[in-house]
Amino acid sequence: MRPLWTVLAGTLAAVLLLSGCGSPAPTERAPAGPVARVSFEPGPDARDVNPTAPVRVRVERGRLDEVELTNEDGKQVPGELAPDGRSWKATTELGYGKTYTWSGSATGDDGKQVSVEGSFTTLQPERTVRATINPTDGAEVGVAMPISVKFDEPVEDKAAVQRALTVQTSVPVEGAWAWLNDKQVDWRPKEYWPAHTRVSVSAKLYGVPYGGGAYGRADLTTDFTIGREQIVKAAVGTHRMVVVRDGQQVASYPASYGEENDPGRNTPNGTYIIMEKNPVEIMDNPRYGYRDVRKTWAARFSNHGEFIHENEENAAALGKVNNSHGCINLSAADAKAYYDSALIGDPVEVTGSASSMPPQYDVYDWLLSWDQWTAKSAL
Fold this sequence. Notes:
The protein is mainly beta.
């Protein structure tokens, strides 16, 4: 048997040999990567991006040297580099159904450069829907004029559309949007507009999902002005049409309203607006046996067929008898005077009639109470 001290000595020698004499072998380290980190919005390879979504590139621990965003045709998207060089954003909306590609570079705080690269694709709608807005730019309109946005197709997601609509006024005005049907949303004030109010409307409809695969085709804007306050007071039983301007009566014309004993010929109660003006209007009413009747100085106030117009053939009834087919008849001179003073959007208040107009024609905004109106909002 070997002595114990011999075994220990052998072990000690082995340890000395391993931990050895001299320096340890050098360890190799991988070179440090660039510290700059680039991020994108939308993310890399994103699909079905809404073209109105924010489009940005950012860098952490570095600065952007240059950034370009181009579509598949090589057209560059306008953009803006932040003053600190750490972000870039597109300054215009993108197109539907397009692929956009990033290019450029950033330099990190360590002096090392990294690439700005990647791509994403915007959504392709099943269809885009056209809209129009009224009043048009630069118009001067009456104090009852509603703002109307109409669509070529029915809108399913009315709330999404309504959130894209804004109204700004030069003086405070309480008002609300209401959907009159699936293709029309109107804004009207609770009371008549204050005279001389300036109004700006923005409809940011591009990129808005209407539902059913449809999206807004384009944004709309309009800037218009409310004119002086002029109101027609059409009290049927008085046989006169009174015009009140800025709170003062300026005219009282002998008139003939609709035949009171025939509901089909009444001038119905309600608050209307002047919708259009024509120096000559050709009128037809086959139910009552007339066609191609030419009347002058015609101001339409209802799509049911009511006008304020000249009717010299009915001169004997003016101021005495109500015998028209629903229109407000005036003499030629009075009809011309009123026609010249009227603005589209002026209110016409008919009272004292045997019947009232149902709220079903395309301009019935003022036939609804305020509670009825606000109940038609989608929000």
